[in-house]
Amino acid sequence: MTELADRIKQLPPYLFAEIDRLKEEVAKKGVDIIDLGVGDPDIPTPNEIVEVAKKAIENPKNHQYPSYVGMLKFRESVANWYKRRFGVELDPSTEVVSLIGSKEGIAHLPLAYINPSDYALVPDPGYPVYPVAVMFAGGEVYKMPLKEENGFLIDLDSIDKDVLKKAKLMFLGYPNNPTSAVADKDFYKRVVELAKEYGFVVASDNAYSEICYDGYKPISFLEVEGAKDVGIEFHSLSKTFNMTGWRIGFAVGNRDVIAALGKVKTNIDSGIFQAIQEAGAYALDNAERLNAQIIKTFQKRRDQMDEALRKAGFEFNTPKATFYFWVKVPKGFSSAEFTKKLLQEKGIVVTPGNGFGDAGEGYFRISITNPRIEEAVERIRSAAL
């Protein structure tokens, strides 16, 4: 048998695959598992979206290869939504590309810009796909630690200047996975200034912009003057409309970066099934109404989790957005030790902070995509005693 490539050998176990393995072991023992691990909404996709997809599936025109960059109808809906939601003007023909979920686009972008010895700036902790995609492209990963004393924002002043000179990409994501931190315009303005000074591309991951609470509305990186000159933004319908299994997202912004990502995609994939794009266009055209119903459910769960964790004595910041609580592990435990203890002894699945990067040590992430909030927190509390 031919030996595996070095890039595969060097891969750490994919975080959620390893959790699934441990979960299966515990489930075989008959343990009642409450899964607060992956951010996969348990609520069905709104029925209106499903009905649009059903009708579109029956159309023979949708049974052929789709456009590599996406149906113009879908890209127009993206542009219209960005204008309504963020006040950002986009040309649907040149500044929008459809994706088979935002993860796909994030994974492919480094192939367009990274050569061996080039650097990509990656948040730590962060979405595991960022560093893996850079490694697959042959680049060097420079980790930017997200610290509580900085509100889990990247400390832009601390980035090594020699690395900045060799950097081709910066990944960032706010509202943040896993910390749930949010960014403001002042932060993004500084990112734009730095990108212009050193000439790297900014890749903003805004997948959680619509999962927000207490009337707070996260902003887009592209709202900042000059942002479109230096980068693009990724978004996904997965979280916004409970469509994780549909695999549809998009990237928007600088037309040259969009074209570069599109060139990679034309050589690797064949686009999104058009029936799903029609459903996605409907979802975006009716986003305000459809998303509002979804947020009511998660607002209630966010409030329940917040109250229960505080009563149990855990340390954390109340999330303004995302599905996630970023919680400090009890004293005497590492992230991996506590999360393994929770699963094996209490049947609770949460995600160890160090699974998102070295700087995540000392924390664990809870997802509120499960309605058994109070029962779960009681089990977590008892394990910490």
From TrEMBL:
Q: What is this protein called?
A: Aminotransferase
Q: Report a single Gene Ontology molecular function.
A: pyridoxal phosphate binding
Q: Which Pfam families match?
A: Aminotran_1_2
UniProt xrefs under Gene3D superfamilies: Aspartate Aminotransferase, domain 1, Type I PLP-dependent aspartate aminotransferase-like (Major domain)
Q: Which residues cross the membrane?
A: none
Keyword tRNA processing attributed: no
EC number(s) on file: 2.6.1.-
Which keywords does UniProt give here? Aminotransferase, Transferase
State the family named in the UniProt similarity comment for this chain: Belongs to the class-I pyridoxal-phosphate-dependent aminotransferase family.
- Name the GO terms of the biological process aspect: lysine biosynthetic process via diaminopimelate
Its needed co-factors are: pyridoxal 5'-phosphate
Q: Enumerate the InterPro entries for this protein.
A: Aminotransferase_I/II_large, DAP-NH2Trfase_DapL_Desulfo, LL-DAP_aminotransferase, NHTrfase_class1_PyrdxlP-BS, PyrdxlP-dep_Trfase, PyrdxlP-dep_Trfase_major, PyrdxlP-dep_Trfase_small
Query: In which domain of life is the source organism classified?
Result: Bacteria
Domain Aminotransferase class I/classII large stretches: 32-380
Which PANTHER family has this protein been placed in?
A: AMINO ACID AMINOTRANSFERASE, L-GLUTAMINE--4-(METHYLSULFANYL)-2-OXOBUTANOATE AMINOTRANSFERASE
